[in-house]
Amino acid sequence: MTSFSGASDTELIISMKGGNRAAYSEIYERYWKRLYNETFKRVKDAARVEELVQDVFIDLWISRERKNIEHLGKYLVVSMRYTVYKDYRRTRNVPSFVEPLEHMALSDLDADALLNIKDIKGCIAVWLSMQPQKRAEIFRLKYMEDFSTREIGTMLGISQKTVQNQLITSFTSLRDFLKKIMILLAMI
Question: Which residues does the UniProt record annotate as the domain RNA polymerase sigma-70 region (predicted)?
């Protein structure tokens, strides 16, 4: 069995694509701890984190021939984040860092306040559907999934400054859109 301990990530990817289990094992050994730590920041449940990390590595092996991976570390971190996101959507578990915001938003329990929150969320969803795909993705990752601008830049392969510029443009556009909606509602 060939040792890959000194191999570059590119060599590991090529060997793994060819079905070499030793290369795959080396990738696992190099990156499992990083993925575990990255995931634990968001999930806070060791058993669930282990399952999610395993899911990423299983997917890597199963779809190895179809994947076009240029930067292994970045690819695995982005895959991990999407796996966590899919897990949130599938299980409907609200991440711990979102719960306080939800409780604050719903602290006023009269019916009108809940209706207004639903209306605003609906307006934002409509506005988001009208945005260019990349801008909508950046907005969603920042404000609905709570990723940092640096993380978003890495995930999407763009600079942090580009992410910041897109967020500024988004705010301006959203503010203008909501102003128009408010004017229409006032007329009705």
Answer: 27-92
Identity of the amino acid at 9: D
Question: pTM of the entire structure?
Answer: 0.49
Helix extents (H) in 44-159: 46-62, 72-91, 99-105, 111-129, 133-143, 149-156
Fold held by 99-187:
Arc Repressor Mutant, subunit A (1.10.10)
Q: What CATH class has 9-91?
A: mainly alpha
Instruction: Provide the pLDDT for residue 186.
Output: 66
Residue listed under structure tokens 């730590």: 37
Q: Rounded CA gap, 188 and 182, in Å?
A: 10
- CATH 1.10.1740.10 in the chain, residue ranges: 9-91
